[in-house]
Amino acid sequence: MSFLINMDSFPIFAISLLSTLLVVMLLATYRRRLQMREHELAAVAVAYESYNDALSRLDGDEPYLSENLQGFIDYLSDSLQNEEFAEQFADRFCMSIKKPSAAKKTSGIAEELDALRKLQPQLADNVETVVRNAVAILMLRWKGPAQKIRRVLIETMLSERDLSVDVLKSMRGNGWNKHDDGAMGATA
Amino acid sequence: MEAALTFCIKALKEHPEKLLLLACLIVIPILYKLGINQWLSCLAPFGMYITFSVVQVSNNMHHVRMGEVEVSRLEAEARSINRKRRSKRK
Question: Which residues neighbour A34 within 8 Å (Cβ) at sequence distance 6 or greater?
Fold first, then answer.
């Protein structure tokens, strides 16, 4: 650079370059966060579409749906747009991931859903779709809970080192990286 | 030389911000040689680069806002479906 720029002017160039890089790095960090939020909102929109579709197929006077299941669906629909509920859900979800209970609890709702599946498989599928998408919406709709869940999931993934290594080993040589020429140790 | 040029083009193809930074770094010595004020010849291209970054951020902010609007629309739809369901039961 010195043959292009006079050495007397080099400090000016260095100050400008460094300050620009600092500003741009800060902007890039903020931009990455925005992009992540954008992806989360796109996922929430997809989940909502699926949720609305399944909910519209569940009749209010459906004779096969028990009072218990109807109440559960009503409770979910009411709480879905409540940020405080999403916070509580995220806390419980994180706790269950960090300290999984040894004894498996049987849920009354799950038992009822199994019973419903034997009678009306389509209806049971709809209820399951509603619940599954509601969980996805609760996880990603609000910024705080989404951040909390993401952090705990990454921590769990890092602590279960052997599991992650096994997953990578099983992927190797299966052609998963054949289009990625830049991948380290890419196998043909 | 040709390989290096091809490598550079490939690397910068999908990164307009890096391409712009490279252009800025080329433009600065040219402005110097043209005898333009030292501060101005440094700050004008870098200012352009920062403006480009700000525009990209505002573009992302717009996308997030649009995402929020879309989710709000779907939330309103969910509320109306739920109201219909409940009115049928009553």
Answer: B57, B60, B61, B63, B64
- State the sign of the Cα–Cα–Cα–Cα dihedral B2, B4, B8, B11: positive
pTM for the full model? 0.76
Write down the domain spans for chain B: 2-89
Q: What is the Cα–Cα distance from A93 to A152, expressed in whole angstroms?
A: 9
A107 within 8 A of A63, measured Cβ to Cβ: no
Alpha carbon distance B29, A6 (integer Å): 9
Containing B19, the helix (H) or strand (E) segment is: helix B16-33
- Is A97 in contact with A149 (CB distance < 8 Å)? no
How far is A37 from B64, CA to CA, in rounded Å? Answer: 7
CA dihedral A178, A181, A182, A183 (to 10 degrees): 20
* Contact (CB<8Å) A60/B28: no
Dist CA A86 CA A92 (whole Å)? 10
Contact B61, A35 (CB under 8 A): no
The partner residue sitting opposite B74, judged by closest CB among A6, A35, A49, is A49
Q: Give residue A41's identity as a one-letter amino acid code.
A: L
Tens digits of residue pLDDT in B27-85: 888 888 888 888 888 888 889 989 999 999 999 999 999 999 999 999 999 999 988 88
Segment A13-42, tens digit of pLDDT? 888 888 888 998 999 999 999 999 999 999
Residues of B in contact with A6 (CB under 8 A): 32
Partners of residue A56 in chain B, C-beta under 8 Å: 81, 84
